[in-house]
Specification:
Blueprint lengths: L8 E6 L5 H10 L28 E7 L5 E10 L10 E9 L8 H15 L4 E7 L3 H9 L3 E12 L2 E11 L3
Parallel strand pairs: 4-5
Antiparallel strand pairs: 1-2, 2-3, 3-4, 5-7, 6-7
Length: about 180
């Protein structure tokens, strides 16, 4: 698909076990030094879903293109940050990916807004995330959706010969 392809609609739904292959491929194809703190995946690939990454933790964006056929365009992982009762009111985004062919068409924004709604449905009133300091596009998207920087762990990661900051962002889910 070319960069000029128009997405005619974007919808977000809960992930299904049947999405595993497509989500694994999306995850591998979007790997980048811009956001990854783990090495590039190499075959044989681990399953996308496992005990800690369950289908019910993910929302999936589907986009209809000019052909009208829906394709998985992205995903977001939304989980409690800890198993502690004292912060059960918080949800954390622990992964967001958008296919290269769908970037710039509002898929990431749609996933964030769906995550806000799902977090509220689960009883959360706050949402947080962590993002690498040099990931300017993601930080701009998060800021435009109401996230604020709440902390910076300077030089938290040593990636590709350089130290990288871990930026903690959060926002209220109050209406």
């Amino acid at each position: 698909m070319s960069a000029t392809t128009t997405l005619h609609s974007v919808s977000v739904r809960p992930a299904l076990p049947a999405d595993e292959e497509a989500l694994g491929e999306l995850d591998r194809s979007t790997w980048s030094t811009l956001h990854a703190v783990v090495p590039r995946p190499r075959p044989p690939y681990d399953p996308f879903f496992d005990e800690r990454h369950r289908p019910e933790d993910f929302l999936v964006a589907e986009a209809a293109t000019e052909t009208g056929e829906p394709r998985i365009a992205g995903y977001i992982r939304l989980v409690p940050p800890t198993p502690l009762a004292c912060n059960a009111h918080v949800r954390q985004i622990q992964g967001l990916a958008v296919a290269a062919w769908a970037r710039g068409a509002g898929v990431g924004r749609a996933l964030l807004r769906a995550a806000f709604a799902e977090a509220r449905r689960q009883g959360a009133n706050r949402i947080t995330l962590r993002v690498l300091g040099h990931n300017t596009p993601a930080r701009a998207l998060y800021a435009s959706e109401g996230f604020a920087v709440e902390g910076v762990l300077s030089g938290e990661f040593f990636l590709h010969g350089r130290y990288a900051d871990d930026v903690l962002m959060g926002r209220s889910l109050a209406p």
